[in-house]
């Protein structure tokens, strides 16, 4: 017995020593990490704007709707992986461009790099650059070695547009390429059964067909035509040519060498970077001799750093911008890239009960998602709109569930390139009976009611089960149409005509009375101020990003640090990124009933 207690005591002491050692080790590690963060943070000196500076907008900067995370997760990533990453909110970018117009230290704006932003976002930035030129008389220059159509849509606003002598201007039109999985699923014995309300609701087609349906081809062609027409009109007006001329290039050439692009009047100069550098230095009113020690430099400040020098709004009244960005999922809290029903609902309730907030701009940039989560959020928007003006600003997407949460707003703004509508519902029922049986796997079910195994994957659904679930989908669709009709103050029959799951461009959505006005985020903010009769106001962006401590904890003990991939132009990297996005999408399909209000695709300009 004495030995027993001796061993117990030794074990306890050993455990305590080990525990204290672990705590000490973690403490040292935490101190080391803290030192890394402090070192990193202190090295990022307070930005200053030198006299005669060029405002540099690197188009690779990730322009996002919501206020980006810029604390622990980014610092940790840069410290550990050496992967510099810059993102800023669209509101901050627009504010910075507007402020530069009246800043005597800024002599012009320089655009460079390649963008991954959507056309809706680019439309708003382009409008801000046009206003900058008109208000200030200062020049905008743009230079690159390759201008894609997406880049060119923005860069064509420049007074001086440069292209490297070996460079290329891409003008070959827009395309949508849809991948179909039905053949592979059939080959490997995966059964698919479909529930759908809305004849244009084509999100299920990749699982059930080998080509697009006539309805899908019709709506996708119409959408691409509208987006392409917006590009043609914008680019041709900026370059003083005609849409017909650019269309001819797209039909017959597609890729223009620099010299031919200049001959066609689509760029101003064919130039190496040192030639462009001389122009930039001239704008800073300093000669090349000043830069002998650093041949690549000129007096400059990045758009990201410049935005940090601006004083915050100090208006008396408050307009809240509430961001709804990403896939709509069922759940609580906040997750980057998604809209959780609980998280956004909490934010909307807080805004409703906050007497200091006079008006709200709901910024929607979502292709939709969970049907139930969408309706939960839409209800909170409806309650908010009953008490305060709610102006909706649509970004690149505000479709299906994204449109549902926008519909209760008092006014809806969209850009011509916004992808919206898609008022419909779908569900997929997969079963693995055939592939399982081929490999010797079988099931035996014991149940207390006929429908107890209605959600099983061990067999196809019976006709009665499908009929029952289709009735549920039809009910959700009817509720969707009714909600939109109430929000838009239009007859339900009229909404049903433009619903049916059909996708619309912002331009066509306005004609269909699904959108009130063409305009961007700043237009929506101005409309909110007018609706609330505000003269002296400031903007508060919600939900606020997590604190430094919260981000640090998540980075260390949560999902881990994931290095962001830089935007790549080569086809292999782009396909890899698409696959990553598809796999990420699968994780958001968490509707309790397995039914969704989502776009059939997310458009990429290719």
Automatic annotation (TrEMBL):
The active site is at residues 201, 400. It comes from the Bacteria. It is found in: Cell inner membrane; Membrane. Gene3D superfamilies: 2-enoyl-CoA Hydratase, Chain A, domain 1, 6.20.330.10. One of its GO terms (cellular component) is plasma membrane. The keyword Nucleotide-binding does not apply. It comes from Adonisia turfae CCMR0081. Belongs to the peptidase S49 family. This is Protease 4. GO terms for biological process: signal peptide processing. The gene is sppA. Its EC number is 3.4.21.-. GO terms for molecular function: serine-type peptidase activity. Its main location: membrane. Residues 134-285, 384-534 form the Peptidase S49 domain. Keywords: Cell inner membrane, Cell membrane, Hydrolase, Membrane, Protease, Serine protease.
